[in-house]
Write a structure and sequence with these properties.
The chain is an alpha+beta fold. It has 2 domains: 76 residues, no CATH class; 103 residues, SH3 type barrels, CATH 2.30.30. It is 40% helix and 19% strand. The chain contains 8 helices and 7 strands; from the N terminus they run H-H-H-H-H-H-H-E-E-E-E-E-E-E-H. Strands 1-2-5-7-6 form a 5-stranded mixed beta barrel. Helix 1 crosses helix 3. The longest helix is centred in the C-terminal third of the chain and has 22 residues. It is globular and about 50 Å long.
Length: 208
């Protein structure tokens, strides 16, 4: 299968900043930053297929009627959501399942970083961005997860073009790294899908 280079690079960008997804023998950060990966595409895709998100990409591709799980449309739908798909298929749902029975204080700190957050850039200082976002919070009730009140946080610009970085743009960030610029609609869609995913997971957890 001839894989979509744009989709592969998008997968690399999101996965490369996640400590839990870094293979010991493969530098995803370096690959994500290279101008062209055509010459190493078979090697890269072989590595990506071994990572935990890949089965979710396969499921999304099937639902969307797309042959290639690494198609950019599929990859984007997994990481930042697609309003035509159920919230259960996005990263922000699948990544929280292991946290359902963890201590809330520990899970909140760990999983907030693991979520893909939509953020509004407030200020820019070189590659350090001041971003407004809604953090993951755990309520007093067992398994109560939701997005909290907006707060500001410092995010490093990892992959967004410096030409695109300015106040009042929207970004998606992962582990405090800016991954891509997103549209206002993508911001709203990811926020809503994350809220739906948290409600679903909270209900699921209470049945344990």
């Amino acid at each position: 299968m001839n894989h979509d280079t744009i989709g592969v690079k998008l997968f690399l960008k999101y996965a490369s900043v996640a400590p839990c997804l870094k293979p010991e023998t493969f530098d995803m950060t370096k690959m994500a930053g290279e101008q062209s990966i055509d010459g190493r595409l078979p090697e890269i895709t072989d590595h990506l297929k071994k990572l935990t998100p890949y089965p979710h990409l396969e499921a999304i591709a099937k639902l969307m009627g797309i042959d290639d799980p690494l198609d950019n449309r599929v990859v984007s739908s997994y990481w930042i959501g697609n309003p035509r798909l159920s919230a259960e298929h996005i990263h922000n749902s699948t990544t929280l399942i292991p946290a359902l029975n963890q201590d809330p204080a520990v899970a909140a700190r760990m999983k907030d970083n693991c979520l893909i957050h939509p953020g509004n850039v407030i200020a820019v200082n070189g590659d350090i961005l001041t971003v407004s976002y809604n953090p993951l919070t755990f309520g007093e009730e067992k398994c109560s997860m939701e997005l909290g009140a907006p707060q500001t946080i410092l995010v490093k610009n990892e992959f967004v073009s410096p030409d695109d970085i300015k106040p009042n743009i929207f970004i998606a960030f992962h582990y405090l790294r800016a991954i891509e610029k997103i549209s206002p609609q993508q911001y709203a869609d990811l926020q809503q899908l994350t809220i739906e995913a948290l409600k679903r997971l909270s209900s699921l957890c209470r049945t344990f």
